[in-house]
C-alpha cells in the first residue's frame, strides 16, 4: 500500500509527463525497424559478446530455478560449439538490495563488460531460450547503435500501477514483457550507466519495474523506444505459433510435489467496522470456504461474522498496529499452529488452492516472506516490501524472526507492508517476489501479460464485479491462448 499523499502527487506529476509525452510525439508507436537498419551486413557476433543476466532471487527455490536456466544456456552454448558467454545470476552480483530494479546494476555491467561485449540480455527464471535462434536475431542489429529490444506490452486503459501515465492515449507507450527476455545494446548500457551515476535515481517507488525501466530509457523522447522483436515471445514453449520464437515462457505455475494442505495455512483478513457489511460478505461468498483456518480482524467485535477485536483503533492510512497484533496472535497459541500465515485485506480476491500449490515449492523452516514485491528508494539504498493488498505470505519462521528482532511500527497508522519490508531488510532477509500476486485489479494489467500466468490474487472492488474476478481465479485450466 502506498501512502495517499504520494498517490495524489504522483498522479499530478505523471499526468504532466503524459501530457508532454503526447504532445511531443503523437505517433506513439514502437519504433518500426527499417529493414536496412536491422540487416546492416550480417555482422559477426560471437556469443561470448552477449552477457546474460538472469533476474534471479535469493530464496532457495528461486535460486535453483535460475541455476537450472544457467546450466541449460551453458549446455546449449557448448552444443553450438561457441565459447561460453557470461551468464550472471542477479542475486549473486552484490549485496545491494536495489539490484533487482536493474538501473542500479547498470554501472556494474558497464564497468565489467562495457568494453568487451555487445549486448546484455535479461531473462527471468521462467524464460526458455533457444540460443541458436537468439544468436541469429541479435546479429541482425547494428551493435554500435543504441537498442532496447523486447516483446512489447501496452495498456488498454491508464492504470494506477503506472501512475495513470499517458492517460490521453494509454496504448501509445510500449514496455517489455520481461518474461520473454529483453536486451540492451552495450552503447545504451554504457550511456545509461553514466546517467545513473551522474543523476541519482529520482523515483521513490518501484511498482511495475518493466514499465519504469522503459520510461527511464525512453526519457521523454531523448532515448530509444522499445523495438518489438517478434522472435522474443511470451508463448508457451510447445505452442504451434512458437516455432519462430527464440524465447518462450514456462507458463506452468510452479508445483513441487503435493500442494500443501489447507490446514497448513492460517488466514488473517484485515477489516474494520465500516466494511463488515460491504466487503466481508464478498469474502464469505467467494474464497472464505477454501480456508481451513481463517479469522477476521477488526476494530469492532461482531459475532455474526465473527470478527476478532484486536484492541487496535482503526486507522485510515496504514494498518501497522493491526498487522503487528495479528503477527503476535499468530504465534501466541490463540490460533492453530500452522506452517504458513497469509494476511490479506477484506477486498483481496485470492485462490487458496492455487496458493497451496505454489507453497509446495517453499520450505517453511526458512524465513519466507512472499507476495508481489514493490520497492521504496531502491536507487539510494532503500528496501523492498511485499505489497499488502495482493496478500502477504509468511512462513512461521519468518514471523518468529521478525517478532524476536524487536522491529516495531513507528505509529499505528504507518503502512504495514512498508514497515514489514523495512524490518526484513534490516534483518538482511530478502522478500520473495511472485508475479502471481496482484496489488490491483485484472484490468490494471496488460492483457498479454496476464495471459501467460495463472494468477493467485487480485485486489480492490472498485468498478469491477469482484465475484466475476473470483470466478476467473477458480478456473482449473488457466486461459493460455
Ligand atoms: C569481459 O570481461 C569480463 C571481466 O571484466 C570477463 O568476465 C568476460 O569474460 C569478458 N568477456 C569477453 C567477451 O572477453
UniProtKB/TrEMBL annotation:
Topology of the protein relative to the lipid bilayer: Single-pass membrane protein; Single-pass type II membrane protein
Subcellular location: Endomembrane system; Membrane
Signal sequence, start to end: 1-22
Pfam families: Fringe
The keyword Glycosyltransferase is annotated on this UniProt entry: yes
GO terms for MF: glycosyltransferase activity
Family the entry assigns: Belongs to the glycosyltransferase 31 family.
Name used for this protein in its record: Fringe-like glycosyltransferase domain-containing protein
